[in-house]
Amino acid sequence: MIPIAKPMVGDEEKKAVSDVLDSGMLAQGKKVKEFEEKFAEYIGAKYAVATSNGTTALHLTLLASRIKSGDEVITTPFTFISTATPILFCRAKPVFADINPRTFNIDPEKIEKMITSKTKAILPVHLYGQPCEMDKIREIADKHNLIVIGDACQAHGAEYKGKKIGCIDDAGCFSFYPTKNMTTGEGGMVTTNDNGMAEKIRMLRNHGQTERYSYSMVGYNFRMTDIAAAVGVEQLKKLDKFNERRIKNAEFLSEQLNGVVEIPYVLPIVKHVFHQYTIKSDNRDNLKEKLNNAGVGVTVYYPKPLHFYEPLKRYGNNDLRNAENVCRKVLSLPVHPGLSEADLEKIVQSIKSA
After folding, report:
1. C-alpha to C-alpha distance for 309 and 325, rounded to whole angstroms
2. What is the pLDDT of residues 322-340, one digit of tens each?
């Protein structure tokens, strides 16, 4: 079976972890600081704050942005649930704006219609590795004095007009789960150019401490370990190479499958890093079954929009048709850098046969 995802971990990561284990400093320490500094430099942001995972990165960023009970945050219904649940953790209300069915990202034309006096932030998701239309979103946010918090959990190294995602928003939130373009096993990161936001997130992730046993607020234990950070430092060195391979794999798939299925649309002003390569098919479920039977691991990201799930049903509205329709058609194919030429040929031939 050709897997839908494959963590690319080598001897460098193994040695880095071994060095940390030998050092005796296993929790948040010097390696986390090194990872933060190198990740901030890579993104082009002034600050980076490591957290335990992508969900906690989003949660802490919302808290640092003073999102509270009664506030509204506009986001997309076509994403993983952890985009929306951190809004609920803050006792705020997720407000869903529909997507552009070509890019799969939130449609800026739909955002402004959802803004009320309670709206405090926009949370766009750079889905599958393709950046959202940030100029339009930034213009809307500035017009209404809103914070922009980017969910970049699938967009490591992606670019909008030559700038990396994570330095365009007020804050960018990343995940390092094993299936991502780079991994730390579990882990997250917030990037920002706002020193005040970075400092607040640092305190919130570590029990609200300004210094040892000095607590200025109620905080959490959302720290990254030095073990995870050691993996992250080595993975970051390889990220561009991983992304180049993903892009080449995607180009091959698009060349071979154009006219067979609806291939991904890429905005001409972005660098899409293909966390997922997602096609559309009116006969998706039958195609999925045939491909899995042929030994091609394909997956549906995502089978339902968020407002179809029990915890989020109350937040649905009547203008989410694009997201609802796309959920019935999308199918993600393997595109990861571990694919061989034979794997790619098999994927293409299996789809053409099916």
Report:
1. 16
2. 999 999 999 999 999 999 9
DSSP count for the chain of H helices, then E strands = 11, 14
* Tokens 């049903």, located at residue: 313
Strand order in the sheet with 270-271: 163-164, 159-160, 270-271
* Residues of the chain scoring pLDDT < 70: none
Longest dimension (CA), the chain: 65
Q: Which pTM was predicted?
A: 0.96
CATH number of 239-353: 3.90.1150.10
* Residue 221 burial class via C-beta count within 10 angstroms: exposed 0-12, middle 13-18, buried 19 and up: exposed
Q: CA 201, 114, 197: angle at the middle one, nearest 5?
A: 10
* Straight-line distance from the first to the last Cα atom of the chain, in angstroms, rounded to the nearest whole number: 16
Residue 10: predicted pLDDT = 97
Rounded Cα–Cα distance for residues 188 and 176 (Å)? 6
Domain spans in the chain, listed from the N-terminal domain onward: 11-98+105-233, 239-353
| CATH 3.40.640.10 matches 11-98+105-233 | yes
Closest CA to 33 of 226, 163, 188: 226
How far apart, in whole angstroms, are the C-alpha atoms of residue 91 and residue 117? 17
